[in-house]
Amino acid sequence: MNLPIVLIIGRPNVGKSTLFNYWAGHRLAIESDIAGTTRDYIECEIDFNGQRASLVDTAGLDQSTSDKLLSIAFDKTSELIKHSALILFVVAADDGCHSLDLQIAKFLRKYKKPIILIASKADNLARKSIAKADFWKLGLGEPLPFSVRQKIGLEELGHLTAEKLSAQELLPVVSKGSLRKKDKSDLMRKLEENAANSGQAEPESIRLALIGRPNVGKSSLTNKLIGEERTIVSDIPGTTRDLVEMNFSRDKQKFVLIDTAGMRRPGKHKNSLEFFSVDRTKKAIDHADVVGIVLDIHAGLAKLDLALASEVIHAGKSLFFIANKWDLLDEDEKIYMRKSLPPALLSFAQAPIVTVSALTGYKVDQILNTATIIYANRGLFIKTSLMNQLFADEHDILYIAQKSINPPLFSVSVRGSKIPHFSFHRRLENRIRKEFGFNGTPFKWVWHVKDNWTLAKEKLKIRDQKS
User: Do the Cβ atoms of 34 and 274 come closer than 8 Å?
Assistant: First the structure.
């Protein structure tokens, strides 16, 4: 069922994101005193006293801005207004009625949408008085004094929002486009064969996060995948700041697609906004099922790409690599990349590599196919008898069993006095992957070490029990 859209609108830096985060229950949107912090709109499903709706935080409205990105954001907000059920127009009580507030009020009136005027930052009696006296000139009725910090107007705003939603006929949400199908590659067929052995039930939704360096094409790929211009695309590095989550379905499989801010090397963050954006991206990895690491293949593989892959593996998340801008390579470069990329990325859970072009749409549909199959690989469970049969020729392995899934956890009892060297781990991992798959999914290990003396005592104990 499509939910009604409740838009939070206002000029830059009036407290829109603070209001959004209050209702969301945690900090989904970055809050800052820097005007223009929010660029892409962010949405969250909210229950307003029994009335469910999609609450949307938007970029600050300023028709006179020379900022290219904010101009694009303004156009997107204008489109959202057309399909909204209710507008929460936020003004700042500490500033009084601003000229931009008057412009926005005039702009909103032409859409003839229900509006609740909210005077934020009304932390004291003086500001409440200013709010009630000064904002009447907007012609939108009496403003509601509001302060998250002082817990002023919170309950009243919730009730008023619910009343406005229940009193009108709701408009439908814009339908999303569909993507064309392409033939599956040999790699995809092999992955599907592995996934077919999974006992994991079809998930409610797969959380897929796209991460990578700045300006590698994450937002362009996001828009291609969902079939609409959902996120702002620009050649300016750092365009995306907030996490942008989108719910959609493809071939009956539900997805939550997460577009993230570009990641730089530690110490290269230009300001606090970039620091918080990167922190949100790390949290997105923690809450994702599958992570697609977007590479600018035309620029080549960078150390940061490998560092990001290591971070995903360390978090226990499944991953694959998306080689974007494939269309910019000539034939010789493509041959070279096909040969050099797999060995360079082999150590990262043998994650698949999908070659795509966000610009032309080349093989973009393979991203969702690969994410679905890799997610299924997280749920593979191998019987203990098969595991021990596979390693029957390994003298040092006494017993091996898979204990859990998501990600796969293996318990191994070995002969010796200490945990085996990393090369031994890698050899076991490679044999398991060769036999059973698990492509793109990291393993976790629990080791039990038993020396010869301990083994001898266990044998004696068993013999005594039998006798």
Answer: no
pLDDT means per 10 residues, the chain with 467 residues, are 82 84 66 44 81 83 59 72 90 85 89 90 69 79 84 87 74 35 42 50 77 85 77 44 71 85 57 56 85 90 89 93 93 91 88 92 92 92 94 89 94 86 89 92 91 59 56
Return the closest-CA partner of residue 161 out of 109, 213, 90.
90
Sign of the torsion angle spanned by Cα atoms 301, 304, 306, 312: negative
In a domain, 175, yes or no: no
Tokens, residue 330? 């000539």
What single letter denotes the amino acid at residue 339? K
Q: In this structure, is residue 177 part of a structural domain?
A: no
List C-alpha distances in Å: 18 to 10, 119, 247, 412: 12, 13, 23, 49
Q: Are residues 12 and 152 in the same domain?
A: yes
Report the alpha-carbon distance of residue 371 to residue 373 in Å, rounded. Answer: 6
Q: Which residues pair with 61 in a beta bridge?
A: none
Q: How far apart are CA 47 and CA 31, in angstroms?
A: 22
Count of H-run helices and E-run strands, the chain: 14, 15
Locate 283 and state its tokens.
Answer: 């949290």
**DSSP line for 411-466:** EEEEESSSPPPHHHHHHHHHHHHHHH--TT---EEEEEEE-HHHHHHHHHHHHHHH
Who contacts 255 (Cβ-Cβ below 8 Å, separation ≥6)? 205, 206, 207, 208, 247, 248, 249, 368, 371
pTM of the model: 0.64
Query: Could you give the number of structural domains in the chain?
Result: 3
